[in-house]
Every structure is written in structure tokens, then in C-alpha cells.
Amino acid sequence: MQILKCPLVNLNVTAKSFNSTTRTLDMTIDATALENLTGQYKISFVLTEDNLVYPQNYYSQCGTPGYVNNYVHSHVVRSMVNGASGENLNSGAWNQNETVTKNISTVLDAGWIPENCRVVIFVYKESTSLNVSNVQQAIEESVIGTTGITGNSGSVKIIRFLKTIRILLILPPTYHSQFRKTEM
Asked: Most Cβ neighbours (<10 Å): which of 47, 85, 87, 116?
């Protein structure tokens, strides 16, 4: 993993609404370049859900055979809102202090519990392969509740896909990270 000392992008959720009748989530996000950037930058929106209780294989090859029947799963990916590779933020140079605004709208499935759902938003610099593209900044926003969380808080989140685990590190503002995928 590569760690750089300064984030190159700031993210800010400027508006959010959830209609509980239609189950529609609308968000507006500002992405601001913190220095002059070259290359293609993309933004991804990943809808996750916590507190899903399902059996979990303890993986006998690791020395712990059997299943845990009531395992509580967290950070389960429910939707890649704008596709697996996200969408372009810039076309050409992205100048320091230039802000790009993105809007998303998505409908939560009837089986998902909105109070347990969150949106992970991250910006990455496109590379030759998605699994080595540098994450520039990432934030997490609840579907229900307060708006206005910026890219300045630190935590580690693991996002699970059906056959792939992608590890997304959200580090303090003095760092940014690279994400990699590991096949299971």
C-alpha cells in the first residue's frame, strides 16, 4: 500500500434528502481539487448496509471449521450507484480550488433498512487497472440523519463484494491511500 502525506481532493456533502415514502435518496456532493491535478479523476458512490444477520463460513482452511449462523455483517455493498468504475470528475486539468458538483439519486430496495444504510463516496485517480488506482479522498454519509460531513474524518471501512473484497482506507487529512482488491 502506498501512503501519501497530503490529500489532493476535498469532499463535502452539501445537500441530502431521503423520501421514506418513495425510498429515494438524493445527494449533492462538492469535490474540490486542493492543488493543480493532471490525469483523469473519478468519483464513486457505493451504497452499503450494516446489521445484516446471515450465516458466516469460518473457513476451515484457516483452522476454524463450520459456520456462525447469526453472524452480523457490516458494510455490505447493496449498490454501486454510478457503476463499478464511477464517473469522470474532470476533463483535462483540474485546477487548484476548482469545485466539481455531482448529484446522485437512487431508490433503496424495499428489503433494505434505511437507518442501516450509508453511502461511501470516494474520488480516485484513474490508472491502468482499477485495483491500483489511488484513492484521493473518501467520506461516508448516512442515508438518514445529519448532512455536511466532509473529507476530514478518519476511519477504516471494509467494503465487501460478492466474490471480491475491496479495502477502502479513509485516513486522517494528512494522508491518502491506495485501494487494492483481493480475490477470495
From this structure: 47
Contact 43, 28 (CB under 8 A): no
119: CB partners within 8 A, 6+ apart: 25, 27, 45, 46, 47, 48, 81, 104, 140, 141, 142, 143
Least trusted range by pLDDT, from 5-9, 10-14, 55-59, 102-106: 55-59
- Cα-Cα-Cα-Cα dihedral sign, residues 131, 133, 135, 139: negative
The dihedral through the CA atoms of 155, 83, 28, 112 has a sign that is: negative
CATH of the domain at 163: 2.60.40.10
What gap in Å lies between CA 10 and CA 97, rounded to an integer?
10
Least confident of 43-47, 56-60, 87-91, 118-122: 56-60
User: How far, in whole angstroms, is CA 168 from its chain's centroid?
Assistant: 7
pTM value? 0.74
* Cell triple for 152: 476530514
Query: How many structural domains compose the chain?
Result: 1
Residue 1 placed within a domain: no
100 belongs to a structural domain? yes
Q: Say what the pLDDT of residue 22 is.
A: 97
Rounded to whole angstroms, the Cα distance separating 181 from 184 reads: 10
